[in-house]
Amino acid sequence: MTIRRSLRVLLIILLVLAGIAWGSWSLVQARLADLGIERIEFSGTDLGWNRIAFRSVELVWSGNGRSLSLEAADPRLTLDWLDWQLDTLVTGPTRITQAGSLQPPSSSSPSPAPTSPTGRGANALELTLPDTMPFWLPRHLEIESLQASFPCQGSRCRFQGQLEFHREDERARAQVDATLARDDHTLAIQGDVRLGSGARAGTITGGEVRISGIRPWLPGSMAAELERLVPASATLRFSPGGEPTPGQWPMNVALTSEGGAGPAFEGEVVLHTGDPWRLDITRGRLTAALERWTQSGWLLKDLRADLPVTGVVAPSDARLTLASGATVRVRHMDAFGWDTLMWLDGVALSAGGLVVRLDDGQFSAEGPLALSAEELRYPGLVTQAWEMVANVRWRQALIADGELGNAAGAVMPFQVERDAGGALEADLSMVLTPDDEANHLAQTLAAWPESLTLDKGRVDVAANLAMPPQGSPDISGEILFDQASGLHRTMAWQELSGQVRGRWQGDRLSVSTESLELASLNPGVPIGPIRLGGDYEADTGAPGQGRLTLTEASAGFAGGSLSIPETTTWNLGEMPLRVPVDVRGMQLSALMNLYPTEGLAGEGTLEGRLPVVVGPEGVRIDDGRITALPPGGRLQLPADKLRGMVQGNAAMALVARAMENFHYRLLESGINYGEDGTLLLDLKLRGSSPEVDSDRPVVLNINLQEDIPALMTSLQLSGRVNEAVKERVRERLMQEGVETQ
């Protein structure tokens, strides 16, 4: 009876233990299922009083659209029964494989992955660590050889290396020595990270990570632009930067690198753990240096960047704001591959306030930008300092709006656009008025006459620059004159109106105008209105030896006109040039009024032709002819001047009396003008004079000589031209050692 009762009690105990075991295993299976572990298998179990070992362990886990399988060989676990802790876990070769994304169950079409508040999918890397060390985490974890395979960048990446983890109380240390491979690219990773600080077990307290083999891992869209800048290896050192809070790790970070531009970073950051993680840069400074770099037809020497920065970096994007003082400096820049040479010295790019983004490998920037050069040299421009201030927008293509100025004081609003292929196009404009930039062009354009100034009116200048990735720039522009008046050397010009277009492409220079009108040009005697129409083409290597074609060229003078009779073309490289000038409707009375002698008068209308010859030594007129139109007119010379010529000569006395009031029927004059400024008139007169005998015909042949430059100087000093011209004439004469009153 006692035996039977004992067996019954034993059976009940066994049933209870079996029930407890079955219930425990059911709970374990349920918990494993909750954790996403679909299958776990052990083989070759070896038990001891404080250890457990297996020949192998296999585990399959799925969740968040991913599937992981783990295979570990010879895992060995040591227990600390006194503290109820796992002391050591050591495994042999271990393999982790991540399969492709899984289809959600009972769904006929793919569903989008869950997104985080930042818009990234749930597959993003999660860095969250517990606030305290989990009780199940072993004090020492060693994986002799870990191999992992997972999808990355359209291929599969392979991780292989050794991992160690050691902790004591609430402090821990993790070390890794591994490689990450994709296709033929290998990234070497060495790390030593310290965790834990007091009760904050999940806090990174310091460490160092070194990575080498970086360049081949650039996204394809970035490789071409940044490959020469990205370093071959980098070392990251970090230490605590303040009191951590749940999910946030403030750190002081120092990044150094080797190769490429040698970028370095030092600053204060906050790492936000979770899904997805992000890095807030609260205060940082990025530096880089490159001795030589070629880009889009430019050669840059001694390039250095110093960029204070704040912003956010996340797994797939980044947003950085450059703080005040952000500068990129280049000692020297050359434009190579162009037919025309350009170079700049002392270039500085200031980018304080610029926002830079990197979104899925696409670079973009937006904000204010200032570019300056201590010296810019380019044919046709005066070498000097230049500065550009603009707002820029850059996403594959670059668009900039701003102002361009130089040391001479010229200011030009502009818009620049550079496409993804490297072609650049710029539009510049400038409004010239007497109060601002009108007189700054003399110190900007090498071909601009220094003595040319604007006193009244307005000039609108617009230019377009098209710069292909290879080849010479194409520069075109136009100038619109609106009642512009000013000075050129010792000539005053009034109310210039019209439009001039120009283009500089490769080795060709062209200028054209359809109708350019100047109300008056006064080199001492007024000429005007002047009308010009035509075009000019030349090689940029010899801009003064091109081909000039005039479709219209006329000038009002002395009540009549001077004009080129028909469309004519000249090659300025083939001197001398012969320019036929027709004289029409010139009034003798107006011509006499120009001469600075009192009592000189005349009446009549003149016409003729002046064969003007332009050569290297100057301008001359060979055998020009002027004739008075019928019925003739009247000519009166000053009596006091004529009496001085008589000197007891009866014949000359008769001529003097006749010229005091001479009525001519014929007036002809040969005209010759030399390069030295001497004008020779061979004047033939036929008519009568009431002072002699009105019925008696008088025939006179008179030879006159005049120094035209001296005459013009006398007229300019006589008060017939404005004070500015008189002052310039005085300055010129003083430089020549001539005294003036």
Structural descriptors:
741 residues, mainly beta, six-stranded antiparallel barrel, 7 helices, 12% helix, 58% strand, rod-shaped
Roughly how many Å is the radius of gyration?
47 Å
Query: How far from one another are the termini?
Result: 157 Å
Share in helix: 10-25%
Low-confidence stretches: 102-129
Strand segment tally? 42
- Label the overall shape: rod-shaped
Strand count, sense and barrel status of the largest sheet are: 6 strands, antiparallel, barrel
Strand arrangement across the biggest beta sheet: 17-18-21-22-20-19
Q: Give the averaged pLDDT, no decimals.
A: 79
> Structural class of the helix and strand makeup?
mainly beta
Strand content: over 45%
Number of distinct helices: 7
Task: Reconstruct the topology from this structure.
Layout: H1 2-34, E1 37-43, E2 46-47, E3 51-53, E4 56-63, E5 66-73, E6 76-80, E7 85-99, E8 140-152, E9 155-168, E10 171-182, E11 185-197, E12 200-212, H2 220-226, E13 233-240, E14 248-258, E15 264-272, E16 278-295, E17 298-313, E18 317-322, E19 327-335, E20 342-350, E21 355-359, E22 362-377, E23 384-395, E24 397-406, E25 411-418, E26 424-432, E27 453-467, E28 474-488, E29 491-505, E30 508-522, E31 530-539, E32 547-557, E33 560-563, E34 568-571, E35 577-587, H3 588-594, E36 601-603, E37 605-615, E38 618-628, E39 633-636, H4 639-646, H5 650-659, E40 662-673, E41 678-689, E42 693-707, H6 708-717, H7 723-735
Parallel strand pairs: 7-8
Antiparallel strand pairs: 1-4, 2-3, 3-6, 4-5, 5-7, 6-7, 8-9, 9-10, 10-11, 11-12, 12-13, 13-14, 14-15, 15-16, 16-17, 17-18, 17-19, 18-21, 19-20, 20-22, 21-22, 22-23, 23-24, 24-25, 25-26, 26-27, 27-28, 28-29, 29-30, 30-31, 31-32, 32-33, 32-34, 33-35, 35-37, 36-39, 37-38, 38-40, 39-40, 40-41, ...
